[in-house]
C-alpha cells in the first residue's frame, strides 16, 4: 500500500474515500482506532492508502475534485 494522503479532517477523508470508490479504486484508511488513545479530539492524522498501481489515478481523482495532496519527496 502507498500513502495517498494524511489528514485530521474526517470530512476530507470521507469525501476522498467516496471519490475513490466511485472511480473503482480500492483504498484503506489507517489509524482509525487512534481515537481511542486521543479521546476523540482529532489530533492524530488518519492515513488513506491505495495500491501503488492505483496511486497516479487516485491522486489525479482527488486533485480534480479539489483535494490537494502534498508533493512526494
From TrEMBL:
Coiled coil: none annotated. It comes from Pelagivirga sediminicola. This is DUF2007 domain-containing protein. InterPro entries: DUF2007, N-reg_PII-like_a/b. Residues 1-62 form the DUF2007 domain.
Amino acid at each position: 500500500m502507498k500513502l495517498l494522503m494524511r489528514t485530521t479532517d474526517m470530512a476530507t477523508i470521507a469525501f476522498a474515500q467516496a471519490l475513490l470508490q466511485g472511480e473503482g479504486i480500492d483504498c484503506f484508511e489507517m489509524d482509525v482506532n487512534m481515537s481511542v488513545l486521543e479521546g476523540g479530539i482529532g489530533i492524530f492524522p488518519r492515513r488513506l492508502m491505495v495500491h501503488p498501481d492505483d496511486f497516479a489515478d487516485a491522486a489525479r481523482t482527488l486533485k480534480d475534485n479539489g483535494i490537494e495532496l502534498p508533493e512526494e519527496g
